[in-house]
Amino acid sequence: MVLVKPLSTPMAASTTLSCFEGSTIMDTTLYRSTVGSLQYLSLIRPDVSFVVNKVSQFMQDPRNTHWSAVKCIMCYLKSTISHTFCIHRNSSKQLTAFSDSDWASCPDDKRSMSGYCVLGKNILSRSSKKQPTLSRSSTEAEYKAIANASAELVWIQTLLGELGQEQLTNILAKPLTSARFILLKSNLNIQLPTSSLPTSSLRGRIGSNDLSTSDQAKVIELD
């Protein structure tokens, strides 16, 4: 793969993969190990999530057409080897979700592909997979993709809310579990003092030598 020609896309738009087309490859272990490595790579390269999901569907019986698709992915990665997944710092809690589907895109079982991504300043969540059930129309396939994206969006909003400061008042309003209480207590800055911080103590005793003669007389009168 060192001398191969780089490609600008990981898969051609006209590519259709089937589990019945092509001849079975001899080295199935190489195919499975290569695709397995691409699955790990897709965690930091969302641009290959769809194509890696496609070639992952033929692990049980890879054909030469599937191996050719894997080679195209490798050629694309060679041309973008310096690209990486960038994360930007941002305090905004505004989220945006996008979804899409490809109706009956699988030639074998006629199931649709769906994908979504949830964005803040960065990609927080994404998915690209075949829908578990058949869709009677492209509209139904789109609604299924929207439902998956909406469920993920609600879950992320709930998670961010639990991690945010608006949940800090729970410690003041109701009893909590030990783990939850300790977490919120740390957000209140209730902790052991360090050696660098000044500490004070209210404990001690007042000796008679610490009082003046007039003050000692007043203490005697009070007694």
Structural notes for this entry:
- It is a single chain.
- By secondary structure, the protein is α+β, with helices and mostly antiparallel strands.
- Among the domains are: 1-85, no CATH class; 96-164.
- Helix content is 39%, strand content 10%.
- It has helices at residues 28-41, 49-55, 64-79, 138-163, 170-173, 178-187, 213-222; strands spanning 96-102, 113-119, 123-130.
- The chain has a three-stranded antiparallel sheet with strand order 1-2-3, with helices on both faces.
- The longest helix has 26 residues, at 138-163.
- The termini are far apart.
Structural class by helix and strand composition: alpha+beta
Portion of residues in beta strands equals 5-15%
Helix/strand order, N-terminal first: HHHEEEHHHH
Which runs of at least 5 residues are low in confidence (pLDDT < 50)? 216-223
What share of the residues lie within helices? 25-40%
Summarize model confidence as the mean pLDDT.
Answer: 82
Counted beta strands: 3
Order of neighbouring strands in the sheet with most strands: 1-2-3
Supply Rg: 31 Å
Largest sheet: 3 strands, antiparallel
User: With helices defined by DSSP (H or I, 4 residues minimum), what is the helix count?
Assistant: 7
The separation of the N and C termini measures 98 Å
Q: What would the principal axes of the Cα set say about the shape?
A: elongated
